[in-house]
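Hey, I'm writing a tutorial for new members on how sequence and structure tokens pair up, and I'd like a real worked example in the thread rather than a made-up one. If someone can provide the structure for the chain below, I'll link this post from the tutorial.
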Amino acid sequence: MSHSTSEACRVLVPSGVLGSGCPQAAFDRGLSLKPHVIAVDAGSTDSGPYYLGASVSKMTRKAVKRDLRQLMVGRAQRGVPLLIGSCGTSGTDAGVDWMAEICAEIAAEEGQSVKVALLYSEQEPARLADYLARGAISPLPPAGPLTAERLAQCDHIVALMGYEPFAAAIRNGADIVLAGRTTDTAVLAAVPLMRGLPVGASWHAGKTAECGGICTTQSRNGGVMLSIDAGGFDVEPLAADNSCTPWSVSAHMLYENSDPYELREPGVMLNARDAVYTAIDARSVRVTGSAHVAMPYTQKLEGSGSIGFRTMVFSAISDPKIMANLDLFLQRLHSRLAEGISTVLGYEPGDYDFDIRPYGAGALGQPGETGPRPTPREVGLMALVSAPTQEMANEIAKFSNPLLLHFPLNADDPLPSFAFPFSPAEVELGRLYEFKLQHVVALDDPLELVRTRYFTIDRGERLAVA
């Protein structure tokens, strides 16, 4: 990377999320570029409120352990810090502890001696209620003002950390930092920022690489290397046969961002309006002109709480008459189900929710979408029943079974036959969760809502916890 200097900070980003994998050849090439830190995100809210509400990982333990082993071995070879944000998908305390257990196992198996920092960002509703009472919690659109009752409805709440807790842990001698919920960019920007490199370039580099190889032309071939210096930053793929282009790099400012030029992080607003993206060669890109504006320090709050239980029934229809009149069929099916659930089971529409999604005919369409669509050859009907208890959801789903198997378009039509793909037809989906918070909390100290613990592993034995 021709623009890098001896003062540059090189950040190896192996993938977009721990558990998704980085080809070993690409990772080894990244190590050969002499990174100053290995950093990766391990979580997201992309998969909905369940993982936060239930405090479980979306990724399998074996996939996470595979990736973490690769990173821990590489970290030991280079003697640099390893930073992981949003452990366990949602960044709850349990997610951090889960990752710590895996880390300890690997250290024992590899004979490593390391100091590990654990950064916890889960919050108790009672503590946040104090901030709420002081007027320190504000809504983000489209959320309304927060109430203490809303806080109490959350099963788990996390506050998205900035870079400062990582910097503090590294200064305290941590070899590995396992963090709770963190902004995707903060874990990547932490070391450049603590080294005093430009704020705008550091955050912009972190934003560019937050999803690993998505800023490259071949997104499944591993992550990227960032090199941040006094004039901007360079980005290149880890894989020798992959490439970054000005288009692939600049486009990532659009990813999960409402403004293509500005990005709000704790205590700062990245301004990329004047950024210039220049191809260094066929593989790498130079970015200059990234700026920033200091902002009041806030952390976003994410909270999820249970709102009942859910059962699914799935059937498939290929009857030509129904396919030609699908909207009318679904209206009549809904009416017939509501009538039966009321008269036979004694439940009124406000007691439960029954949603039928016609996969193959607009199930993924936008609300209020209008206009003609082609007649499908077949449709899968996903019926989702939500109710206060699992027993009630199951009961309503079972009651719907005959109609999801033999419901005609017209009362005098012969009974059609649909198909259930499995037996039993009802599948318990368990607790149903929803996001409860879309708010930020104003803080005086970036470490105010973070709890840090350390432990040392000496060839597998935990020597100390503080």
